[in-house]
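[job 0412] stage=fold_complex status=start
inputs:
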Amino acid sequence: LAKTTQPISMDSYEGQEVNITCSHNNIATNDYITWYQQFPSQGPRFIIQGYKTKVTNEVASLFIPADRKSSTLSLPRVSLSDTAVYYCLVGALGSGGYNKLIFGAGTRLAVHP
Amino acid sequence: EPEVTQTPSHQVTQMGQEVILRCVPISNHLYFYWYRQILGQKVEFLVSFYNNEISEKSEIFDDQFSVERPDGSNFTLKIRSTKLEDSAMYFCASSEAGGRTGYTFGSGTRLTVV
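[job 0412] stage=fold_complex status=done
writing structure:
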């Protein structure tokens, strides 16, 4: 499983766009990039997943450059409720489906009024 | 939106006692997992379960732990003889085949061993 590196913490203000970058230099050909969000005392929540280029959903965008050695989670116009820990995970999604998730320390995002 | 339901939300138990943590995964999901998070630490993988058997387990998941899907809807984690260091949030998760839509986690059970 590819090791990931992301900032320990970030601060932002309401209404701003937040970009959290994750490095995964040893990403393998079969690996996907997935981001989760976790609020205190709650389980992680799936945000977005991608393989290459750009993926967008109603919550966030995920930018993946051609070499796939990094990825950036973009949260548009954050609010106080986006204060959470964000995890970048890299791993293969095989047909077996039982690929365990390896969580790092994540990025603790604090959104201020 | 479908949810993974965990009960109880909090459990306090005495050291040495057995506990059973319960989970109801999303109905059409085939893959089930238990993770735990000790306060202030990372989320750690415990075990994955598919087709009524364990598909992978971590070093943490020793002989004190067991999982079961007793009735086709519930998925349980049993800790036979709890230790103080078992105190943690325990999260159940489920996924469709391949995890292509991500894994859905429950809200967790906070286990406190005293």
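[job 0412] summary: Chain A touches chain B through 24 residues (CB under 8 Å).
[job 0412] exit 0
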